[in-house]
Amino acid sequence: MNLFSRRLALGATALGLAVLSGWTAEAQQPDLSGKTITIGIHNRSPWGYRDKDGHVVGYHPDLVRAALAPLGVKAIEFTVADFGALIPGLLANRFDIIASGVAITPARCQQVLFSEPDLSAGDGLLVLKGNPLKLHSYEDIAKNPNVKLGGGRGTENAKNALAAGVPEDRLLLFPNNEAVVSAMLAGRVDAATLSAPSVAGLMEAGGMNAIERALPFKGYVKPGGQEYMMATAVVFAPKDKALQGLYNARLAKLKTDGTMKAIMAKYGFTDAEMPPEASTADLCAAKP
User: Fold this and answer.
1) In-domain check, residue 218
2) The domain spanning residue 63 has which CATH number?
3) Do 17 and 88 belong to one domain?
4) Which among 39, 104, 87, 35 is positioned nearest to 237, based on CA atoms?
């Protein structure tokens, strides 16, 4: 347990573990002033990334800053890791929180703790300029035996492609966006599946003259007939329930006072991406 977690746990115990029963009164919170907290990101816009000046920005870093600042947490450090290395890094105590577009899934709930949901997002697709293969769905990819798809290692988007019928031998996995885009430009894959916000972020960043976003695009359609939408959240280690409780109390306030919606708008999210009504407990218990 890192120093931050130990002090937070002791503070919560002294208060009768009040944070775990949903209290929100700031006067009762343990003093976190001057504490340093380390946050893992995977350097992907708009989730959590370094801008051209080297500053860490993105929807989740901004949301965490807004949540923790009134609690006295002023010193925040960021560590960049490949997406697939974020949860292992958290469990290995490399950082205290993951704030970088991680979807709540039952499998991940067996490993880590999630905050309450803070956003909804579907899948997106990158294709070569002009979309020469006319790819507008996973079904289009699956039925064309000559198409190879790239995806991020450990992402829900890649899993959705497989669930939608894309053969495993035609899905190549890469550690990050840069690698999958390079593979497209080199002709190793014909398209790449990422979250819709990640696709939009890449296109907005520029320098993608040979690649475009496939519009429209239909992602994985679940057996019930609804298109899959992931619910994202901030991630905590299993030992940090007190920190999770504190964060959830602050997140609830950010949702009601308009701060979360303002941060969403800053990064191009609309009401269509508002978090689901389902709780994290519901999403963790959901059937695949």
Assistant:
1) no
2) 3.40.190.10
3) yes
4) 87
Which pairs from 261-267 meet CB under 8 Å and 24+ separation?
263/59, 263/62, 263/63, 263/66, 264/59, 264/119, 266/59, 266/62, 267/46, 267/58, 267/59, 267/62, 267/197
The predicted-structure confidence for 73-102, as pLDDT tens digits, reads as follows 878 999 999 999 999 999 999 999 999 999
Whole-angstrom Cα distance, residue 147 to residue 142? 8
Nearest Cα to Cα of residue 110 among 222, 238, 262, 20: 238
Which two three-digit tokens encode residue 111? 């490993």
pLDDT averaged over every residue in the chain: 88
Q: How many domains does the chain have?
A: 2
Is residue 64's pLDDT more than 60?
yes
Give me the domain span that covers residue 178. Answer: 123-213
pLDDT at 5: 53
pLDDT average, residue stretch 25-38: 64
